[in-house]
Amino acid sequence: MKTLSSLGLGTSLIAATVTAAVVAVAPAQAASLSGSVGLSGDLDIVNKTDNGFTWKFSDNVVNDKFGSFAGLSFSSGSSLPQINDLAFTCYSGFCTTNSVSPFINFGQQTLTTKDGETTANLTFNLNAGQYLNFGVSGTTETTVSFPYLTGAFNFNGSTLAVGQLAGGYSGQSSTYQMTLKAVPEPLTIMGSGLALGFGGLFQRKNASKRKNRKSA
CA 142 to CA 104: how far, in whole Å? Predict the structure, then answer.
């Protein structure tokens, strides 16, 4: 399987997408989770027309987990995490998506939150978003959230989150990578603090970590 670096997705673009952005977090939505989680896997790009396409996610693997998400675990042979389809409507290199709830289902998890250790079902709801789409028709294509994606983790309460999602194809191989970061406090956070290490995310070689991944 090819990584997104082979799709020509530069780290400078990822860094540029998170500058000068502001996320307002309402006090009523104070976070119960903190930290970040990174996922990657395969894509099946279907329903492709001049006006858009749909991503179907498979072989999803959690590659990085920090803070509250450090406790994420999945039983052997589990099909989790599950990610629902994401449909894109596109025009002149600019795409939009509708909200998806839930977008990701991590299943029953025992995580450490600000209230202590808690066991509950963990999901992530994705807000409607904007994406850039570019590449060489029939050869390569990359789609990346712009300036970033937003949503909320649901785990015994709601925690707002920001992140980045990118994917595409090169030849016959299609992959995606995603990072999600819980917003830890009911404050306004400047986008310059939301880089989340995206550049490093797209440079990592995750093959050795994907114990649940099918052989390419």
Answer: 21
